[in-house]
Every structure is written in structure tokens, then in C-alpha cells.
Specification:
The complex is a heterotrimer of chains A (about 250), B (about 525) and C (about 300). With about 250 residues, chain A is an all-alpha fold. Chain A has 10 helices and no strands. The chains are: A mainly alpha (about 250), B alpha+beta (about 525), C mainly alpha (about 300). Chains in contact: A-B, A-C, B-C.
């Protein structure tokens, strides 16, 4: 856990170590192979790939975290609201399943068309797309905690449900929230990269790993160095999150 | 363990491929042709895509043709034609002995049925109908003579009639299949017959061995028996598909890949300039700060078009100077060299308009307002890359650029309707400058410069009515001058259609409009040579 | 009774998904007809007439009722762009998607189960290690990235001319199966490890049963249940949304039809595909639950 957070902080701070302006173009210097002046080479507009990669890391982490929070907070709320009432639970389950039945990408595309294409709406679209799954996971976890003997007996003894929820159920959920939250973060990372591939991502030219990957793919045969750093970084980040999540016991 | 299985499969499949490969030694009689868009419908009378013309130009003949060399009209299904004094009646004498692919003989009735189909409002024609202009009706004089009547003079009519959207279809097939089914069973008189269309997957054509009535510039060859068209919407995979032999011809190769392919002896590149408009950004004259002529001119002077063409287009195109590309009819050569990059001039214009950097943030301002422009950026034609370069080029003279990317034409139009933009990238293609009308007439449907000038209106309207080339040429020259004097748009580069083909392919040529290949004379040498 | 209830729930899910999509799409003004006609310079009265012919100017509730009525009769409407029946368009685009989903589904499940077992138990020659790395990679690489790499690899490694079939069918199947094996394999290996810690397995070990027998008899059986769900959902996902793979490998499937129709605002087509995807999802869900009961009769709900 701490190791992951440390990596995150490191990625965010490294943006300040970038040697060049990540937006500065120089067309007479396009698609240069890695050299001392440009350790990661330059892209089609002659921008320094290393600087874009470092700034991109910060941008990518922040927006994927924002997207993950957009998924986590409402989902947890929804799961708790429904937890007390079986009828509400059933209706909620049906709606969630209907949402899951709609292809994920369609939801994101529609949200993007309604909000207009921008960094913010791409983040929102990616985050909202994770709500159904996350709610189901939290729901299952709450049911698990509730069936524990001591909570059942406390409820039978007439304990205040709100007090029960905050004092006993929620603390027991924190491991699930943390583990599955990290996994959701990696889904968000993956999905926002996919939106960029389909030409529906955030801001044009912004140094962001998903954007860089899509840009680099278009020139991959001539200049593989543009796409490799973000490609490897995204894979490595998701890899370490998954390893950590698998290592946590309760995770399925 | 798993990777071992995968590896085994690979080896196995690779083996099969190799065996097949050695079996095909004689010259190819069948080719695969890569298209770049997936048209939502391929009925030329009803749908609007220019991609559909690539296969269907081979299926249909038109009443007249344009010779790709001279660009003059030449006989097609009509052997001769005449225009009445009042320019309202066009009389066509039709060729005899022409037979549709389904055996129906070609007569005036076929032309009539095609026109009826296009103009029937229930059919919802998206392009062909509008190409007919002020069409009023037709009269069948006899089996091989037909007249078309207009309500007012419209000189682009012949140009329209030479395009595949007004290709003549078999009346029998039109009667047999409903409006929606016909696109799967198209029947024309062209050098290839339509075999099948599977949406999103392929279009297959097979040679029409009875074809004897092509226009003079069609060569008589029967090199290819069958053509399969497939859709490669992802630009990054196009040159791969060409070099690994999935296709023998590929449309619109990205410039950078094309540059790489120039070193590949197995591949030939075919560059065809496209008449019509260049890659251009229309400038909104109704919104701050581009409502000011000085600002519009400053943006043009601040743009380094050579840098854009050198880097993004890999020098495959030439600089554009006005609202028409250089090989369009009546292009005004006076415009060449205007608005060459000149940062000093740009800065003088901005200063004369009262802009200074009063808060020292690198961005000019006036009365507390920053000099910021918004560009609507569609995803096609390398516009995103061009816009990013503009953003950086204009930053150096103190202009901040906000990019507003849109995924589709639909979204683009919506952003335009909101009026919240300073520039928008949009352009169309065609040989006849009548296409300027929709962009620059007051109330024109894509008048996105939001400009109105009665003199410009008069010139454009008059040019549409006039037939005499010299008269039209002078009218259009004046119109283009007015457009550029008012800096209504920022032209970037003339369009070039870069197609790739295996080097053994011979007689791979394009028609006068640049997009549509003439495939009937094409042949392939020994495979892979 | 339970069969009836399951059927009822399936219908409600499909109806809810269709309704949600219907209104979501219309949050945004404009439609395909408008866009297409403006592009070719049609006058505004022509556009209005065309739209009213298609019923696009009617109040929203009326359009919705018409859509529901059509749905009940099995009529999904016609495309705003081509005028083709939506059901016909879907049927045309279904075969490539089915082909891909089932080939990749089967291969992916097999590889996933093998990989999952390999990662969970100790195998000689570092095979477990290979399985673990494969599994993690399958879960961490964005799919369009691995797809592009596969395309490039083939273009370099194979002789010119052998490309077509490989890149149109074999490669997408391999790439999809690889990614699917990640999800399946992780589920399998997690479950196996959980099961190995369970009392009866420990007892079996203590009794000196051979590990292979324990694995087959007890552990795999337990791990089978959630694995089936994952497989089912993955196949459902492939049917509804293999957009990226289809774009990469030039396949004319449902995913691409969905993407294009959404971007072009061809509402009836989008709705039609959602109804189909929802139906597949609902069927998969119910089938999995039925299988649960079959395999493990203790589960009742």
C-alpha cells in the first residue's frame, strides 16, 4: 500500500524535473531518435517525449484518481442507502444489472456527447462507467459484514441503524474499498486510454499517457520511442496495482 | 505452457500461409482494394459519401464524362448534347446498343427512371438531388433522346451529370428492389458488375465482359476479373495491410507512412491532387476577437504553412492560397504568395488594433480581455496535428489558442451552431467552384465565416448562371479576391490523395475529381513484382 | 416458479436497459437525419420535412411509446441513415462478432483455466512463474496496445501475402483470448488458493491423498462456480462491445456498428444493439445462476 502511494507521489513530483516545455513544438526537429539532448526522442511535432512523459504521468495519475473517486463515492453511498431495505435493494439490483447490460463504451460515448469533449467530461465518463460494478462489489461486502453474528444481534437489540452503519459496518469495509478502489483506478486508466484510441479522449495534445499512446501508435513504425514510454508505464502501473490487490486476502 | 500453445498455433498458421503463397504464381486476376471510410450507405442516388464513388464509379456510366487530362466534357451514355439558347433546356442524344448488367437495354426511359428516383422526396436523396440544382423535370422525346428542364440557368449541371451520384441505373432493378434494398443489388452499365455488399465488411465487383461503350479515355484491358473492397478505418493499420499483402491497393495512406513506403520497392505511391477546397480553417467574423479584420489578417501572417507541410504532410502537398485549391476550375493565380508568413507584419497589425501585453503574461490583451481564439477541430485530415502547430505558432506572437476537438461532423455542426468559435476546419471537394456558394453566399448553409457582402453574393450567383468559361473565370477571380481580402479563411495545404499499390500494378489512374479511380484498364504483372 | 421469475427478471432488465438508452440518447439534441442533410447543403424546410416523415418531431413520450410498441412486436425500427431494418442490419453484422466471441471465448477459457491452475500450484521448470507473468500481463496491457503489437509482429515476422486471414481472424482471436485468459485465470487461481486453505482440503492432504487428485476432486470443483460467471460475462462483453478489436483488425462486427451509429446519432440502430446486448447479458446471467444450482445444490436464493 505505502509502496504504491510512494510511486504515485514520485510520478506526480517528477513532472517538475522535465527538461523542456512539453508543449513546445519544433518541426525542424521532428521524430528524432533518442539522444543526449532528448533521451526519449521527439514526436511528430518535434516536442520532447521525456518532458511530455513526465508531465503526462502527473496528469494521468490525477485524472485517473479523480475518475476513480467519481466511481467510488456515489457507489458506496448508493450501496449504504439500499442496505437497510430489502425492497430498495432489489430495485437497485435490477437497475444496476440493466446498466451493466448496456455496453460500457456506449455509456461513456453518450456522456461525452452530452457534456462535450474535454478533460473533465472524459474523466466523468470513465468514472461513471465504473459505478454499477463498484456498487455491486460494495453491496456484496456490506451483506457479508451484516451477516456477521455481532451485528445481527446488535440490530436485534434495537441499535440505531445509522450508528451501526458508521461505527461497525463501514470500518469493516475499508479493506474492500481500498483494494477494489485501486482496481477501479486501474480500470479507469485503461478505459481512458481506450477512449483516446477511439479519438474521444480529453484535451488535444495535452501531455497525458493515454493521449501519447494514441499519438505514438499512429507513428509507431517510424518512431517507436513515442509510444513505448507511456505504453510501458501504463502496463507497469496497472501490473503493480493488480499484484498488490491480489495479495490482499479478501479480494476476488 | 500457454505461450507454448500460442506459439504452436502461430507456427501452424504461418505454415499454412506459406503453402498458399507459393501456389499463386500466375498474374493476379483478383485484387483487394482498401477503402478508408465505412459509408453508412452506398446507394449513389441516395447517400452522400465520397468513398462510395470509388467502387461504384466502376459500376455505373454517366450521361457524360470529364476527360481526366483535358478536364473537358466527353461523351458517355449520351453521345451528343446541346443546350438551348435560354439555358433552361438540355437535350441529350443517347448511345444505342448499351445493355445493363441485368440484360435490360439502355434507353431514355432508364434516364427518366433514374431522375424520378433521385427527385422523389420519399427517397430522401442526400446529395444527387442537390446536385441537380434548379431542376424542373424531363421530357422523353424518343427512345434515344431526352430533355432536362431547369427553372433557371445553372451552369454546373453538366458537371453534376458527369458524377457517379447521377449514374444511370437499370429501370428493371429499380422496380424490383425497394429504395432500401437496391443498394445491395445495384445494376448499371459500367465495366464492372456489382456482386455483393456486406455492410462494414466488403463490396465485391466482377468484370462486365460485354462492356464496349466506355468513354474515350477508358483503355480496353481486361487485366482484373474481380475486385474486393474492404474498409480500413484505422489509418495506422493501412500501410501495414499494404505491405503484408492483405490488399493490393490502399487509399489515403498517412503522409508519414507514405514517406516510409517510398523506400519500399514492392510498393508504388500514387499521388493525386484533389480539386475543390484546401485544408482550410473558416474564420468567424462575428465573434471577438476575429470580428476585427486586422486580427484575422494577423493570424494568417503568423502562420508558417511551410513548417506544417514539411512536418505533418511530409512535403506531399503544396501550400494553399485561397478558398480553392490550385487545380480547381477558375482558381485565381493572383492569390499565390499572398499572406506569406511574416511575424513582424502580424505583430504590427495586432499593435495597430490596440493589443498590448499589459499584464506581462505573454498573451496580448485589450481592455482587460486576453487575445484568445477557439478552434473547432474535427478528427479527420490531420487537422488535430495542424491545430496543435497553429496553437504553438500563434503563441509566439501573443495569441492564446483553445482547441475544441469534436469527434464527428454532427458534433462539429453543433459547436458551430452555438457560435462559440473563432475558427473551424471544414472544406469540400469538387471541380466546379459552385461549391463556394454554400460557404460564402449570405445565408449559405455552411457560411461559417458568418460573412455577408452583397458584391460577393452578386458575383457568386452570377457565376452560377453563366456558361461562358471566360466570364465565369473572371467572376470567380473577383470572388476569391474579396474572400481573401476579407481574410475569411486560413488556407493550409492543397489536398493530395496518396494511394499505395503493389508495384506490379499497371494503369492505376484517377478521374478528374481525384478521388475516384478508373479501374477497368488496370492489370497486375507477376505477383509481387 | 423460479423459471418464471428468472424469465420475468430477464424481461425487466432488457426493458430497463432499452428505456435508459432511449432517454440517454435523447439528452442530446439533433439526430442523424439533420446531420446528413446539412452536410450536403439541404435547405432547412427540406430537413424539417424529412424529420417529420420519420416521426422525429413528435413529442418524446410518443416516440417512446412507439418504440415500446415496436419492441413488443419484435420490431426494432429502421435506420435513420440507410432506411434499412435495424434487425436486418444486426443480423448482417452478427456473424463476425459471434465467430470472434466464441472462438476467443473458448480459447480464452481454456488458456485461463490452465494458466490459473499453473499460477496457483507449484509446477516444475519455472512454468508457474511463466503462467503468473502471462496472467498479470494479460490484465495490465491495454487491449489496443497488445493488438497493435501483434499486428506489427506479424507484419515483420511473416512473409508478404500471408497476412489477410491471419490478421483478420487468427490475430484478433489470439489477442482477445489472451486478455480474457487474464480475467479467467485470476479468478481460477484466487479460488484455488482460497480452497487449498479450506479445512477439508487440509484434511485431504493430511490423509495423504495425492495433490493431483485433491486438485481435481475438490479444488477445481469449487473454483468452477465463479469462473463460469466470469466466462459468461466476458463472452457477453465480447458480443456487446468488441469495438476496439474490431476497429484494429478491420472486422465488420456489432461493436463497430454500435460505435458508428452512436457517433452518427442513428438512434434506432443503437437501441437495437443495446436490446440485443441486454438480452445476451440477461441470458448469460440466468444461465450462470442455473449452472450454480446444478454444480452446487447447496446454493438457494
Amino acid at each position: 500500500m505505502w509502496r504504491l502511494l510512494l510511486i504515485g507521489v514520485l510520478i506526480i513530483c517528477l513532472a517538475w524535473a522535465a527538461p523542456y516545455d512539453p508543449l513546445k513544438t519544433n518541426t525542424s526537429n521532428q521524430l528524432q531518435a533518442p539522444s543526449a539532448a532528448h533521451p526519449f526522442g521527439t514526436d511528430i511535432l518535434g516536442r520532447d517525449v521525456l518532458s511530455r512523459f513526465l508531465h503526462g504521468g502527473q496528469q494521468t495519475l490525477l485524472s485517473a484518481s479523480a475518475a476513480a473517486l467519481i466511481a467510488i463515492i456515489p457507489s458506496t453511498g448508493l450501496a449504504f442507502v439500499a442496505a437497510g431495505d430489502t425492497r430498495l435493494q432489489r430495485i437497485q439490483l435490477l437497475i444496476l444489472q440493466a446498466l451493466l447490460a448496456i455496453p460500457n463504451l456506449l455509456l461513456a460515448l453518450v456522456i461525452l456527447t452530452v457534456l462535450g469533449r474535454s478533460e473533465v467530461s472524459a474523466t466523468v465518463a470513465v468514472g461513471l462507467g465504473q459505478i454499477p460494478v463498484f456498487t455491486l462489489v460494495i453491496r456484496a461486502a456490506i451483506l457479508g459484514v451484516q451477516s456477521e453474528g455481532y451485528i445481527e444481534s446488535a440490530r436485534a437489540a434495537g441499535a440505531n441503524p445509522l450508528w451501526l452503519a458508521t461505527r461497525h459496518v463501514f470500518p469493516n469495509l475499508i479493506p474492500t474499498l481500498a483494494t477494489y478502489g485501486a482496481v477501479t483506478f486501474s480500470y479507469c486508466l485503461m478505459n481512458s486510454a481506450a477512449l483516446n484510441f477511439l479519438g474521444m479522449g480529453g484535451e488535444l495534445g495535452k501531455p497525458e499517457w493515454g493521449v501519447m499512446l494514441a499519438e505514438g501508435r499512429a507513428v509507431f513504425r517510424a518512431a517507436p520511442w513515442v509510444a513505448l514510454p507511456p505504453g510501458i508505464a501504463i502496463t507497469a502501473l496497472i501490473w503493480s496495482i493488480n499484484r498488490w490487490a491480489v495479495a490482499q486476502r479478501g479480494f476476488r | 505452457m500457454r505461450s507454448a500453445i500460442v506459439l504452436l498455433m502461430f507456427v501452424f498458421i504461418a505454415g499454412c500461409g506459406a503453402v498458399e503463397q507459393t501456389a499463386t504464381e500466375p498474374p493476379l486476376r483478383r485484387i483487394v482494394y482498401g477503402l478508408t471510410l465505412q459509408p453508412s450507405g452506398i446507394d449513389p442516388h441516395i447517400n452522400a459519401s465520397s468513398e462510395l464513388g470509388i467502387p461504384l464509379r466502376q459500376v455505373y456510366d454517366t450521361l457524360i464524362y470529364r476527360d481526366p487530362e483535358t478536364r473537358e466534357f466527353t461523351a458517355g451514355l449520351a453521345s451528343t448534347w446541346s443546350i438551348a439558347e435560354d439555358q433552361l433546356t438540355y437535350t441529350f442524344t443517347l448511345r444505342q446498343g448499351v445493355v445493363f448488367h441485368d440484360g435490360t437495354p439502355f434507353t431514355a426511359q432508364a434516364v427518366a427512371t433514374t431522375l424520378d428516383r433521385i427527385t422523389n422526396p420519399d427517397n430522401g436523396s442526400q446529395r444527387a438531388l442537390f446536385m441537380l440544382g434548379p431542376y424542373e423535370g424531363y421530357t422523353v422525346i424518343d427512345d434515344f433522346t431526352i430533355q432536362i428542364q431547369l427553372s433557371e440557368p445553372y451552369s454546373p449541371l453538366l458537371d453534376s451529370l458527369s458524377q457517379v451520384y447521377l449514374g444511370i441505373a437499370s429501370p428493371k432493378a429499380l422496380a424490383e428492389y425497394s429504395r432500401d434494398r437496391y443498394q445491395f443489388h445495384q445494376v448499371g452499365t459500367g465495366p464492372f458488375r456489382f456482386v455483393e455488399y456486406i455492410p462494414g465488411d466488403r463490396i465485391v465487383l466482377r468484370r462486365n465482359t460485354d462492356y464496349r461503350w466506355g468513354p474515350v479515355f477508358y483503355s480496353d484491358s481486361d487485366g482484373i476479373d474481380e475486385i474486393e473492397f474492404r474498409f480500413y478505418t484505422d489509418a495506422a493499420t493501412r500501410s501495414l495491410a499494404l505491405s503484408n499483402g492483405e490488399v493490393q491497393v490502399m487509399g489515403e495512406i498517412p503522409p508519414l507512412d507514405a514517406r516510409t513506403l517510398t523506400n519500399n520497392s514492392a510498393i508504388q505511391l500514387k499521388q493525386t491532387p484533389i480539386p475543390g477546397q484546401p485544408l482550410q480553417f473558416l474564420i468567424n467574423t462575428q465573434r471577438f476577437p476575429t470580428d476585427n479584420l486586422a486580427i484575422r489578417q494577423a493570424l494568417l501572417y503568423a502562420t508558417n504553412r511551410d513548417a506544417i507541410i514539411d512536418s505533418i504532410f511530409q512535403r506531399f502537398s503544396s501550400v494553399a492560397w485561397g478558398p480553392l485549391s490550385a487545380n480547381t476550375l477558375y482558381f485565381n493565380r493572383q492569390l499565390v504568395g499572398t499572406y506569406e508568413q511574416n511575424s513582424a507584419q502580424a505583430q504590427t497589425l495586432l499593435a495597430s488594433a490596440g493589443y498590448t501585453d499589459s499584464n506581462n503574461d505573454g498573451i496580448l490583451d485589450i481592455g482587460g480581455l486576453d487575445l484568445e481564439v477557439t478552434i473547432i477541430v474535427p478528427p479527420w485530415g490531420s487537422v488535430p496535428e495542424v491545430a496543435q502547430l497553429l496553437q504553438d505558432q500563434w503563441r509566439t506572437i501573443g495569441v492564446r489558442v483553445r482547441l475544441d476537438p469534436v469527434p464527428t461532423f454532427n458534433a462539429l455542426r453543433e459547436r458551430v451552431e452555438s457560435g462559440e468559435y473563432n475558427l473551424v476546419a471544414y472544406y469540400t471537394f469538387g471541380l466546379d467552384p459552385v461549391l463556394l456558394n454554400q460557404f460564402f453566399l449570405t445565408g449559405g448553409i455552411t457560411n461559417w465565416s458568418r460573412y455577408s457582402n452583397s458584391e460577393l453574393d452578386r458575383l457568386l450567383t452570377e457565376a452560377t448562371r453563366q456558361v461562358e468559361p471566360a466570364v465565369r473565370s473572371s467572376l470567380y477571380a473577383q470572388a476569391q479576391q474579396i474572400i481573401m481580402d476579407a481574410a475569411l479563411l486560413l488556407p493550409i495545404r492543397d489536398y493530395v490523395n496518396i494511394n499505395g499499390a503493389i508495384s506490379g500494378l499497371r494503369e492505376f489512374n484517377f478521374d478528374a475529381y481525384g478521388w475516384f479511380p478508373i479501374l477497368n484498364g488496370m492489370s497486375v504483372g507477376a505477383a509481387g513484382t | 416458479m423460479t423459471v418464471l421469475m428468472a424469465a420475468g427478471r430477464m424481461i425487466v432488465i432488457i426493458w430497463l436497459a432499452a428505456t435508459l438508452t432511449f432517454f440517454l440518447l435523447r439528452l442530446h439534441p439533433g439526430d442523424a437525419v439533420e446531420a446528413q442533410l446539412i452536410q450536403v447543403g439541404a435547405a432547412s424546410d427540406v430537413i424539417a420535412e424529412r424529420r417529420s416523415q420519420l416521426g422525429l418531431l413528435d413529442p418524446l413520450w410518443l416516440q417512446y411509446l412507439r418504440f415500446c410498441a415496436g419492441l413488443l412486436q419484435g420490431n426494432l425500427g429502421v435506420s435513420l441513415i440507410t432506411g434499412q431494418l435495424v434487425s436486418e442490419m444486426i443480423i448482417q453484422r452478427l456473424p463476425p462478432t459471434l465467430e470472434l466471441a466464441f472462438s476467443a471465448g473458448i480459447l480464452g477459457s481454456v488458456l485461463g483455466v490452465l494458466g490459473g491452475v499453473g499460477a496457483a500450484v507449484k509446477l516444475p521448470y519455472g512454468l508457474s512463474w511463466v503462467a503468473k507473468i502471462n496472467l498479470s500481463l494479460a490484465l495490465s496491457v491495454p487491449i489496443y496496445w497488445s493488438g497493435t503489437m501483434a499486428l506489427l509482429a506479424v507484419s515483420y515476422a511473416l512473409p508478404t501475402g500471408s497476412g489477410a486471414e491471419i490478421s483478420r481472424f487468427v490475430l484478433p482471436v489470439l489477442v482477445l483470448a489472451f486478455h480474457m485468459s487474464g480475467a479467467v485465470g485470476q479468478m481460477v487461481s484466487t479460488n484455488i488458493r482460497l480452497a487449498m486453505d479450506m479445512d477439508f482440503v487440509r484434511t485431504a492432504h493430511a490423509k495423504g491423498l495425492r495433490p493431483v487428485i485433491i486438485l481435481w476432486r475438490h479444488v477445481l470443483r469449487l473454483g468452477l462456480l465463479p469462473t463460469i460467471t466470469v466466462i459468461g460475462l466476458q463472452i457477453g462483453f465480447l458480443l456487446g462491445g468488441a469495438v476496439i478489436i474490431e476497429s484494429l483488425f478491420v472486422r465488420a462486427g456489432l461493436g463497430r456498428l454500435l460505435l458508428e451509429s452512436t457517433l452518427q446519432q442513428d438512434y434506432p440502430v443503437v437501441q437495437g444493439i443495446v436490446v440485443l446486448a441486454a438480452a445476451v447479458y440477461a441470458v448469460v446471467l440466468s444461465t450462470c445462476e442455473a449452472l450454480y444450482r446444478l454444480i452446487d445444490p447447496r446454493i438457494t436464493r
